[in-house]
What does this fold into?
Amino acid sequence: MTDQLDEALQREYEAGFVSDIESRTFEPGLDEDVIRRISAMKEEPQWMLDWRLKAFALWQKMPEPDWAHIQYDKMDFQSISYYSAPKSMDERPKSLDEVDPELLATYEKLGIPLIEQQQLAGIAVDVVFDSVSVVTTFREKLKEQGVIFCPISDAIKEHPELVKKYLGTVVSQKDNFFAALNCAVFTDGSFVYIPKGTRCPMELSTYFRINELNTGQFERTLIIADEGSHVSYLEGCTAPQRDENQLHAAVVELVCLDNAEIKYSTVQNWYPGDENGKGGIYNFVTKRGICHDNAKISWTQVETGSAVTWKYPSCILKGDNSIGEFYSVALTRGAQQADTGTKMIHLGKNTRSTIISKGISAGKSNNSYRGLVHMGKGAKGARNFTQCDSLLIGDKCGAHTFPYVESRNPTAIVEHEATTSKVSDDQMFLCRQRGLDPEKAVSMIVNGFCKEVFKELPMEFAVEAGKLLEISLEGSVG
Amino acid sequence: MSSWLANTISEAEQVNDWLSPKRAESLALLKNTPWPNRKTEAWRYTPINVIERARFSAANDTTVQAAAIENLDSIDLVFVDGIFDAQASTDNFPEGLCITQLSEGKNCDWALDSFKKTKPNKHFFGLINDTLATSGCIIDVAAAAKIEKPIRIVQSFSAGSQSHTRILVRVGPSAKLCVVEQLQGDELCFNTSFAEYDIGEAATLEHYRLAMQCQAAISIGGSHFSLAQSAQLTSNLIGFGSQLSRVDMDIIHAGEKAISKLNVIYLLDGRELFDLHSSFEHTVAHGTSDQNIRCIVADHANAVFNGRIHIHRDAQKILASMNNRNLLMSDDAQVNTKPELEIYADDVRCAHGVTIAEIDEEAMFYLQSRGISRSDAQVMLSFGFINELVDQMPNIAIADWLRPQLRNRFANMEIR
It folds into this structure.
């Protein structure tokens, strides 16, 4: 079994190629000057620069957190370059015809066609390459409905009133070490605004790609769903195969006003490093949403990549009757480490939350669920259900659960359950007896194990996620 | 460093006895351990600054009497403010049982090795106990000896006292023993009380820790067990909260096929706090462990639980479960719980569950529709919630003695 496992671990990372694109990259290092230069490159107003500098001052005083169940060599923040953009982007292309063909080819290769006609109808894509947004499709069509979907750097210039009002209200500058860093140096990301009572006519999606060596990606996403609106947003990411670790420190803020609904799905496939843990992306991400009255935020994530994952998409259920959901599949293999989970902060009356977390560990990896369910004093009649299951494949991996449950209101009901097991011999026997080969059998069992989460993903992503899992598990059973 | 800690350290430097080599190790660690605060994971929900504020002394009032457990024929060891009371204690022991005072421990060749063998080093007040505990006892049960009478170690505390006690127990192979650790006193005092149990091959230990200090008392302690092959442990912990009560239960499966079971009941009222940290370490394959924690919290009380199951690499074929159920009785009460699993072996079955809720309205309605008053119904349901665990106690005398005391706690509780 172990041999076959090793074999599986040696599978190629399909998105690991490097695109040969000439880039304008800052010298490694971080100080106020770098921040001023980023801000100048983006032609930002003074208030934005002040905001960044304030975050930088706060960040310098913060210690790097070490409470997560992960081990990695601490990063040298002075050896990272904080800005890198393809040279061809110096002059912003006005249409797709002006975009560097090499860039287009990169996305072609990743299976993300940027030409609108070739796309599955109903998905608008914002494409972020290193530190800049290359193209955002269907912008005009969305505008007809009043939906704003653009790079956040454009939003700062074109919709400063919205950005000023909401930026940093969910994840503030002093929230945590990596969020503060992001506030200081964030380069691009998506901005979405759905006007009152509008149901966004298509799925919105952002595709992140790290290409340049020794850079970090610091994107920031801000989604605002105004009263009674609805939006579904997808996010995907890949990076080249390199021996050096690269940092990805993103911040995602969701503002869900009265009666609105945001569905946020992620398929994370950053380069995970080789089987000995060399290289790979350090993924330190802060994602949080706030729900006002009757609003609903649903996080769905499939985590298969990254050398280190540190990620806790959370919901602040501030409004009465609001709903938070978290569905997660985290797969680790090789020497990957994941410490992921969610926080559900119940503040309003009759708030409800559901947490379904499925962790699968194989190889020498460690997979931890870390979550918080907090029932505040005002959370009258609130309800939480949490289920976190872990599946172990092989005897060298680890699966851990660290749930924090805090209740301050007697009428709130909290239920938490967790199990850890392996693919049972009985299940395997049954499948094999019916003529399935062991590999298919495991794939089927694992798919069944994750079904509750996959069914939450939009169709295209569900297919991609299922495939990713299949590739990852190839040959992991004997 | 706080002046309290500075005083404690200088006091510890004066202690000189047969345990000095071991005490020195802990003292060195203590000097390098920062004073725990809210950011220290192990003390996240339990503020301890009250220890610094209060003044304590070793002076004691020997008139404090410990409550007897009716119908329990036991071997009694009585400590008042940490000082052994020979008169109130039993002085003849059955064959196979040897009890020595901690101060006389140099005659027990195994005791030095056993000291802080099972108690983990990470506990801040455990380190303080290591350096300062000069009273306590050493209990040795010979191989295959079946000690029928339970050993009852009673500790009572008077106002303003400070004491540190340590109990070391060795249960020989195939032997059988029952130990009851009883702690009581409502006055403001500060005590640390740690016990270490070394359970030999195929030996059986029945254990009770009755942490019944309430109100102003500050009590920090723990019972730590190491199980050799095929050893069995049944442990019952009863916790009444106080100003600050903290108990650590560590169970280490050092030999294969050991079975351990921990049942915990805690009932909190007023502004009381009870903090339980339990840890099951499965270091070898083939083991079974089970823990059930039931908790009722009323008024402004705070119930803290941190449970941990740790399955080491290659410790296959483990069956471990943890069940934590909490009943919140008032708007101002709080529950903070964290059931952890840390698993490094694949062929294991582990599960944990947590629930927090108030009494089921439908059950209340049912009882009331049968003519039972609301307050009686409430007592009935909440008592039923914990009585399940009381019923599981192997010692009937202790269970019978506990029931009215637990019921009394409800009668006084301020219920919504």
